Amino acid sequence: MTQDDDLRTYGDAAAADLTFNCPLGEARAADLVERLAPPAPDGRALDLGCGSGELLLRLCERHGTSGDGVDQHQGDLARARRGARERGLAGRVTFHETDATAWERPATTVVNVGAAHIWGDAATALAALRDVTAPAGTVLFADGVYEASPGAEVREIFGDLPDLATLARTATDAGFRVRHAATSTQSEWDDFESAWRAGVERVGTPGARRFADERREEYLGGYRDVVGFAWLVLTPA
User: What is d(CA 193, CA 205) in angstroms, rounded to the nearest whole number?
Assistant: First the structure.
């Protein structure tokens, strides 16, 4: 097994039991679902880079709408489809194994959480999301930001992230109005990181334990309080 294979195995194991593969708590998830209420009952939701589809399923279940989830990870899509069947949403929510950058059909509610990298960066992602957002639609865009000045080691891991204000300006430059802007709380981060490492630990190998230990040190000794996760609710300008 190569190092890349190891990393994929650990990442899959980490995400397997997570409700959301990002620092998102239940209270914020419920709040966002309400903020993303469609302008009309016949609206359609779209999640580009949907992962296990949890947020999309909650949106469609809460508001009685239909939706499409787009991803290229077969394991995540299998979990998403299983979730749709279990909630009685298989007839309304369709999951597509395809490249999100090739999606062209607009939707009234568009979601992109932690998947701006599909397009390369936040600016390109936001421009693409604007193209698939209906005129009266709403977008949820979430991505990493710096909440404090990073040291060299943290910057090497995460690259040149913007701060929240810069990300909001990038959204307005892409043709959106920013209706809501926030970042995950420290508690959301701590819970997410702990649960993520616990998933890796369950692999049970010495390599997995070393990987979990390295992640813990990177977080507690490096990017905790430095890297944030931004949540923007946007509407077309």
Answer: 19
The tokens describing 35, both together, are: 């903020």
| Angle at CA of residue 183, ends 180 and 187, nearest 5° | 135
* DSSP SS3 for 199: helix
Work out the number of other CB atoms within 10 angstroms of the CB of residue 156. 9
H-assigned helices in the chain: 3-15, 26-35, 54-63, 74-86, 122-131, 152-158, 164-173, 186-201, 206-218
The pair of three-digit structure tokens given for residue 15, joined into one six-digit string:
């995400």
Which residue ranges form the domains of the chain, and what is each CATH number? 25-183+225-236 (3.40.50.150)
Whether 145 and 164 have beta carbons less than 8 Å apart is answered as yes
Per-residue pLDDT of 2-43, as tens digits, reads 555 577 789 899 998 899 999 999 999 999 999 999 987 788
